[in-house]
Specification:
Blueprint: H1 2-9, H2 12-40, H3 45-48, H4 53-100, H5 116-149, H6 154-158, H7 165-236
Length: 237
């Protein structure tokens, strides 16, 4: 499992580029939506509620799914950073192994194993990505409901009776929006937690591995001195 994750970590530039593309696309959609909003609110209320129902539905639905889309892009960028940290961790261990391979196997100290939070770091990142993907899916579904509801004039929505499809849809929209916002921040918070775990792992490895390498250097010096004594004695004789 860890070997597979290590191979996947090399793809971190792709995650960052995809996330950046999503963020830029969100900006373009936001600009287009702003133009639609400007044209919509430049008309009188009577015109808006009779002739611009499609524009209103588009504004309401886009306002629901676009934030989840932006958070997904940001989450992919953070996920790429986590994978880059995993690659740094692997390279640090490889560098330590290259130093210790110069010692005889019987005198070679063991490198410190990665801490538990270092092993869990990719899993935490994947959980954050799943939360953000789920948020985006929920946002799309809720946006579709909003498009159907707000395609009706406001007087029709206001006069809808209890249990009607319009009020049921309106209830679903507001109820979902109440928990969808903290869910998005939970996904981003999980990504930041993975980054913190990666940085803590790097500090752990640097601290412990530096001590092991210092120990290896001392062992190497001792072995060189031990080998040098017979050579000097032979030369003197």
């Amino acid at each position: 499992m860890q070997i597979m994750i290590g191979k996947m970590a090399r793809m971190f530039p792709m995650l960052i580029l995809i996330g950046l593309a999503i963020v830029i696309t969100s900006l373009a959609i936001g600009i287009f939506n702003a133009q639609t909003a400007a044209a919509y609110f430049s008309e009188s209320k009577a015109v808006r509620e009779t002739s611009l129902l499609a524009q209103r539905a588009a504004l309401e639905s886009t306002g629901i799914w676009l934030p989840t889309f932006k958070f997904l892009g940001l989450g992919l960028i953070l996920g790429g950073i986590v994978m880059a940290l995993r690659l740094i961790i692997d390279r640090l261990r490889q560098a330590g192994e290259e130093v210790l391979v110069n010692l005889p196997p019987e005198h070679r100290p063991d490198l410190p194993q990665p801490p538990w939070f270092g092993l869990l770091m990719p899993m935490v990142m994947f959980i954050g990505e799943l939360i953000l993907i789920w948020s985006f899916a929920v946002g799309l579904r809720t946006a579709a409901v909003a498009r159907d509801v707000f395609a009706n004039p406001l007087p029709v929505i206001d006069s809808a009776g209890a249990g009607s499809p319009l009020l049921t849809g309106l209830q679903q929209i507001h109820a979902t929006e109440s928990w969808l916002v903290p869910l998005k921040f939970l996904g981003i918070g999980t990504e930041f937690l993975a980054i913190i775990m990666g940085l803590a792992t790097i500090i752990f490895i640097l601290t412990r591995q530096t001590a092991v390498i210092d120990q290896a250097i001392e062992i190497g010096r001792t072995l060189n001195q031990t080998e040098a004594v017979p050579a000097l004695a032979e030369a003197a004789g």
